[in-house]
Amino acid sequence: MTSTANNPIFRIVKDFGQSIWMDNLTRDLVESGELKQLIENRGVRGITSNPAIFEKAIAGNAVYDADIEAGIREGKSVLEIYESLVFEDIRNACDILKPIYDETHGLDGYVSIEVTPTIANDTEKTISEARRYYQEIGRENVMIKIPGTKQGLPAVEQVISEGINVNITLLFSVDSYKETFMAYIRGLEKRVNEGNDINKIASVASFFLSRIDIKIDGAIDDKLEAGVDRIEKEVELKTIKGKIAIANAKVAYQEFKKIIQSDRWKALSAKGANVQRLLWASTSTKNPEYSDVMYVDELVGPNTVNTLPPSTIEACADHCDPANRIEANVEEAYNLIESLKDPDIDINLDEVMVELLDEGIDKFVKPFESLMASLEEKVKRLATVS
Question: How far apart are the C-alpha atoms of 97 and 18, rounded to whole Å?
Fold first, then answer.
């Protein structure tokens, strides 16, 4: 195990102003003391959860059975039992991370929980559920995840105005990211106009990475497999493989810098507003030909968060090579994105981003529905035993 002193994650945090959060939350992690160890030995400063993670945690784990049985005795529905389990895990994780939250004055130490993914396209339901989650969990360092959809962003604006921390998730395109930051700004402005403080509100914009490369690389492989008429075209197609997600993220970071230099943002900053940090999500490398810490090393920079699955945290602790690369090769990043329009490449990035958003919502809805089905089955089995 890498010693704390030599762990690159601590350098990323201390020297480069990026926070490392973990993309995983289970009761085992909390109760075993592993989360505390990850904070102390791996530099983890926050945690996110999602329905796919909870599906694996709850469906196949006896650690939840006693609470499920208690829910059965109380006559709770399957959804109410699910929420009681998940809210308890979130509260306990929030308590473990509270010292980080206090020490960083609310910069880090957050635990993110997603509103029910089946309501991603319903603004009003998203608002009411975000309020309810925030109140019932009852921890100031909880962050409510809301998808950055057309219907999600008005909900972001509203709940920010009510003082609720928000993690806007499923962002793929730079335009969507800009709209997300503007929703945060409007929410803060509304709060200011109502005479309320804004210095305790935090938000991150979760910008997805590896899924972009999977989609673009797949399109390139299809073109190469179909055959190309010129060697130059083949070279050009191969050159951009595995590079678009990072280029896209670097362009988004340039937009972040422009926004925080705007008069509109400076007016809020003067009243104590915290910047909405870009959060790099979907950071496990899926292609074995690429570095397993590619989405960490290439995007280290100030005012950002990188949320990593456990395997990538271990890989990073072992061999990340931190440097402030978010500002490196920015012109090349713009050129790479522009090159997709080249007739030899001909990949419509806007269409790719729309597909990814639709698929992303589906990837949250399906595990949630599967989790509900598994939990219902478990409830029936445990009810019979009881």
Answer: 17
Beta bridge partners of 111: 47, 142
Lowest mean pLDDT among 4-13, 227-236, 331-340: 227-236
Helix (H, G, I), strand (E, B) or coil at 154: helix
In the predicted structure, residue 382 carries a pLDDT above the cut 90: no
Burial of 8 from C-beta contacts in 10 A (0-12 / 13-18 / 19+): buried
Q: Give the per-residue pLDDT at 6.
A: 79
What is the pLDDT, as a whole number, of residue 3? 52
Q: How many CB atoms lie within 10 A of CB 51?
A: 22
Domain that holds residue 157: 8-210+267-328+365-379
Active site (catalytic) residues: 145
Quick: pLDDT tens for 39-62: 999 999 999 998 888 888 887 778
Residue 6 is encoded by which pair of tokens? 């030599």
Is 232 among the domain residues?
no
Mean pLDDT across the chain: 93
Total number of domains constituting the chain: 1
DSSP string spanning 283-328? Answer: -S---TTS-TTHHHHTT--TTEEEEE-HHHHHHHHHH-----GGGT
Confidence band for 1, pLDDT divided at 50, 70 and 90: very low
| Structural domain contains residue 295 | yes
**Comparing C-alpha atoms, which of 153, 165, 168 is closest to residue 200?**
165
Tokens representing residue 298 in the block: 């290439």
Average pLDDT of the residues in 256-281 = 97
Q: Contact 147/51 with Cβ under 8 angstroms?
A: no
The owner of tokens 């104590």 is 272
Residue 317: partners with Cβ closer than 8 Å, 6 or more residues away: 2, 7, 8, 9, 42, 43
The CA distances from residue 122 to 80, 83, 203, 378, in Å, are 21, 20, 21, 30
What the block records as the tokens of 264 is 């509109």
Q: Does 172 fall in a domain?
A: yes
The CATH number given to whatever domain includes residue 102 is: 3.20.20.70
Q: First and final CA of the chain: distance in angstroms?
A: 44
User: Is 222 part of any domain?
Assistant: no
Cα–Cα distance between 61 and 293 in angstroms, integer? 30
Q: What is the pLDDT of residues 199-225, one digit of tens each?
A: 999 999 999 999 999 999 999 999 888
